[in-house]
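FORM 7B: Structural annotation worksheet

SECTION A. Query
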Amino acid sequence: MLRRLSVENYALIDSLSLELDPHLNIITGETGAGKSILLGALGLLLGARNDGSAMKDATRNCVVEGMFDIEGLALEAFFEQNDLEYAPRTTLTRIITPAGKSRAFVNDVPVQLTQLREVGTRLVDIHSQHQNLILSSEQFRTAALDTVADNAELLASYAEQYARLQALQRSLAALREAAAAGRRDEEWLRFQHDELTAANLREGEQQQIEQELTVLEHADRIGEVFAALRNAFDADETGVLARLKECENGLNRIRGHYPAAGEYAERIRSTIEELKDIGQAAAADSERIDADPERLQKLSARLDTLLTLQQKHRAADEAELIAARDRYAAQLAAITHGDEEIARTEAELLETRTRAEALADRLHKAREQAAPEFEKHMLRMLSRLGMPEAVFRVEVTAGELGSTGRDTIAFLFSANRNVAPQAAERIASGGELSRIMLAIKALLAEHKQLPTIVFDEIDTGVSGRIADAMGAIIDGLSRTMQVVDITHLPQVASKGEAHFVVSKSDGKTSIARLTAVERTREIAKMLSGSEITEAALAQARILLGE
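SECTION B. Predicted structure
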């Protein structure tokens, strides 16, 4: 349950701290005082999205903090799964910075907003003053009946199979589309693949061909240069090698007189050997390089083939052509084996659908079995709330598989047993909707075992004896759980022990817990208006049981 709520710099709230009673907490105040603002701050703490209007002072952080007693709520597994330290008294914190960034903490440990929202849903259920309209939600009606039917585990199993079913349906549709497209394109794909396969592609071949073509195209010029090189090296008297040999011999003859000549001779010897190697390599190349018109034509044709294929397939080189060939091969293989994959997926889809339908049937039976209990509770509560002639039925209609099974859930209502019941969200008046929603919330509270529930003017549209009955029901709920009730009705406000008043002064919202005397005057004010009369005070004392 919520022990303490602290709010700083939120909307009209500068700073306030609220110590809550473990049972019933009544909150009253004039319209516009800021009761809904307080509820907005609590919603922010529980993970609601920041709509950008949180901060009162744009230069300071907005901070909302709540301390909760969570012992006995079986939240240890949640804390362990989220790497959080469990504490019987846990503090949730939400901070909105001036830049609009949101930060959330559980026991001072930073958490994601989704984690804060998840733990928040396990701690507090907020029924806002506009939530009566949720009765028109198919999701709400189904969830309400499932709560009474205790279908949580069964729903989780069904949701897993339904998600798998949808994934398989998408996969099968994609396979069939690909197969159809493949069959349309098979002839074209096979032609492209065969053409590239017949080309016997080798990575790097184009570069080798271009290099060889360059040599063949200039074979005559290369031969002339190599012939001149050989003549320069090997001429008998004027050749470079012969002249260097003479120089070497001359240096060797004087090395006895001039030692450095020996070093020069050795260096010349090394040069002669290097030049001989060059001459031999050049001679070998000269013999190998020959103007071969046939080879030149063959290589040119091969290069043209490669370039044509690259242009056709928009490839930069042979590597991309090889990748295209392999891609065409994979597409052809997919066409060949596509029917097998489709058959496997169809079989798995059938098995999954069978499992999902079986679970949906179990959900249907569980809902049908829970419907009478739901109806009895609603009729009993509606009778207490001044509608003894009311008719309330839960209609469970089977149909196609959906996210929560195959059922459509309708709540049929009539305030008069002689009038055929219709959808409650369409036929019920504002006051009747308030009573229906309170009855549903009371039922769900019994089954969910939430520690705290917040009612924001759930008593809208009722008065007098009915208001007193609503107050009694809300008071009854507070015996097994914490209830926070925001109300304008003195009959409801007189219940419980803790009564808080929200007020606004100088543009700032504040809240204070009332003493017994102050509470009597507040109830009297709610009865008579701004001028408190003795009659109103006397009636307030009666309501408070004084």
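SECTION C. Observations
DSSP finds 17 helices and 15 strands in the chain. Residues 318-384 form the longest helix (67 residues).

SECTION D. Sign-off
Analyst initials: ____
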